[in-house]
Amino acid sequence: MKTGKLRREIQILAPAKAVKDGYHGRWGVRKAWYAWIVEKGSRAHVAKPKDKAALSWPGAMHPIMFAAVRAVMGRPFLGPAADIHYPKIVQYIREKL
Known about the structure:
Blueprint: H1 5-9, E1 10-19, E2 22-29, H2 35-40, E3 41-42, E4 45-47, E5 67-69, E6 72-73, H3 78-96
Antiparallel strand pairs: 1-2, 3-6, 4-5
């Protein structure tokens, strides 16, 4: 499903500051908990309940004790964006500082 939420959640996490070897800052996705899974993917694993006796979700036939989750291939979005925009960002920072 493509809703645009990940794109909207990209933000500056730490503003850029001049350091001896250039500029350092951080940006990423803070509010979308699944951003890392989309970026890097995940291994197959077994999902188990944390706080309840069983797993359940709307539409499930019945609560279950565990669920096998398939591996998910990553679909990078932050890395490619950085590759495209970092040179522009560095130039912008140099002009402003």
